[in-house]
Structures are given as structure tokens and as C-alpha cells.
Automatic annotation (TrEMBL):
Cited PROSITE patterns: PROKAR_LIPOPROTEIN
Entry superkingdom: Bacteria
Name assigned to this protein: DUF4823 domain-containing protein
Pfam families for the chain: DUF4823 (PF16105)
Amino acid sequence: MRSLLLIVGVLLLGGCMKVSDLADSAIYQLRDVGVLDHSQTRRASSWRLQADSFIYIAQGHFVPPGGAYPRPNVVAEEAYKGFIEYFPMVRRAKAPLGLEESLAEAREAGAHYLLYSRFAYADDRIGTIEEWEDQEAVDRLGTDRGVIQLMLIETNTRYLVDTARIRGRGGLLTLYDAKPEDLIGPALQDYARRLLGLGR
């Protein structure tokens, strides 16, 4: 009798939600409890951009504390990959630049906005046998973590349109051979969606 009630309850709940909604909810819960990669974005404003906005993407020279050494221009590269799907007019700097250099290059390119980024924190935990053999520290076992900071600046007026802080945490299922920079791609794509008003 109990199993029959359980089956009826599941069928009733299944009729209230689409399968895709159930899947999205399950993925969200798995991310929240740390089984899958998780990121949290905090924005200073709810400013939205038009889809035809021309955005120039650059990354600062800052080397993040935390013991990891990500590629020098990785945030700009990942932001470019995430933004190109939503903003057709996107360019990025080929190497890390200072803020003034980035603004000058953005103006020269004719961009409406500069997305200036930096890797503020990166903690590359032990995730492979080789890393364990190198470090042999139990307190270094675990999931990778990282924080990136973004500034969206209007190039003509130097007006700070938005700032964002994205905090990423690896998941238990993606622990093996992962790096903090592996966490930032989906979060930056989500930020691009939010700028268009499509995200959460």
C-alpha cells in the first residue's frame, strides 16, 4: 500500500512540472551540496545591455594569491568564449593590460564598454596522484576554489556601469585533475546572459 501511495505521489508531482524543470532543479541541488561545480555571482547593479553592444574584454596583470598560478590571460579568454554567444561584437586583449591601457585599446577599437577582469583568488587543491606525491598534505585535499572580479565600464564616459564578484567552487565529481580556472567559463557565460536580462 505504501509503495502504491509513493508511486501516485510521484506521478502527481511529475504532472506539475516539466521534465526539463525537474532536471534543472536536480542539477542546481547537486551543485549546491558540492557534488558538481558551483558558482555564485554578486552584481552591484541590475544594469542591462543591448545585444548589439560592442564589448572589449581585458584582464589585469594581478597574480592571484592562494598558491595557484593560472594562465596570465585566462579570465579574458574565458569571458570572450562566454560573451561571443550573446554579444556578436566582442573583442579581447591578447595579453594582460593595465586599466588605462585597456580603456585606450577599447576606445581605439570603437567599443561601447570595457569588461575589465582579474583573478582575485585561486586555490588549486590536490586532485591527482601526482599532486599528492608532490605535496603529501592532507589539509590540501579537496575541491578547487577561485574568485574573479569584473568591472564593466562605459568607454567614452568612464562610467562604472557594473561590478561583479564571482566565487567558484569545484565539485566532488569533477575533483580529479581540475584547476581553479576550469570553474570560470560557465560563470562568465551566465554573467553575459544576466547582462542581457536572460539570467536569474
